[in-house]
């Protein structure tokens, strides 16, 4: 009997020592070079934290304005923190959590208050261009991309949109396919080759240039998201105000058809890539077509306001296309082809950049500016600083979110 008790005591002691040993091992599994960054400039900053770890680890940020360079890793690495400008007149705080096994370490980032001039803030939006090409003719030169984006910026600046697109990177990628279905590409799932090319949408607008199988499509974009706390009609609602790239189940981007990448401005060919990119970036920032459209962005055979902007004249594009197709052969000037009748039967000349039929395509309206500004200020997965609001639903960085992104051509 005593021998049995002695054996049991020894066994319990061994288990206790093993438990302490595991606990000690876990507690020493990860260390950080810093635990806090205080009084970070309201203009934003780039910070680094050294992770000392003898195993795998994950990292997540509690706030979209303080993004991290990677969500997971193994061993000793440097984690970069990108702190956006603070548009609010109050200081704010974010927490970075690094986890290895059962051990968590945190870094707090406290940022100084901004001047509160939200409307006056000029956004700079980094654009990451991915050029998918099958042959040298499809590999768009850097100079051509620079020319197109410079002209796009001029269109936005001429309309006082208070934003600038800047090239972050141009990455040529050899493709086995001479053409790719843009419909399939825009639904690329997590783990696919095309999905893996995407850079973090919180930091970049991803623009993919490739030859479409659908030759009649010039470009296509995903529409942004809206949150319950700052709802914007016409966008997909999400409960998550802070979404990391690793959580996306599908690609999120803009696609441009390179079949027309060298087309020039012509009143008889609305295939100009400058207008196409400006148009698709407008979609990416929350704008719809000014003509009546269905929920998929296709022209509807009716006349109603579906772009949520009262100062853009709505019209029936199906009727317009029928009128256009019935014109006798001949030469017509662009202004004649741009004439429309709105839903009240009043004549007007189309000049809106979100109209892809024959149009002067050189204007944004005040209501469109307001929508874009709302998206820049509040929507998740859009680069640039955000206005601080009540936090939405929190998720784990390892959780994949099934978000029904909407595409629009």
TrEMBL record:
Domain Peptidase M43 pregnancy-associated plasma-A: 249-376
CDD domains per the UniProt record, alphabetical: BACON (cd14948)
Protein keywords: Disulfide bond, Hydrolase, Lipoprotein, Metal-binding, Metalloprotease, Protease, Signal, Zinc
Signal sequence interval, chain numbering: 1-23
A GO MF label: metallopeptidase activity
Domain of life from the UniProt record: Bacteria
Record bears the keyword Lipoprotein: yes
InterPro entries associated with the record: BACON, Ig-like_fold, MetalloPept_cat_dom_sf, Metalloproteinase_lipop_BF0631, Peptidase_M43
Pfam family, one: BACON
Residues of the BACON domain: 56-112
Similarity comment: family membership: Belongs to the peptidase M43B family.
Protein name: Zinc-dependent metalloproteinase lipoprotein
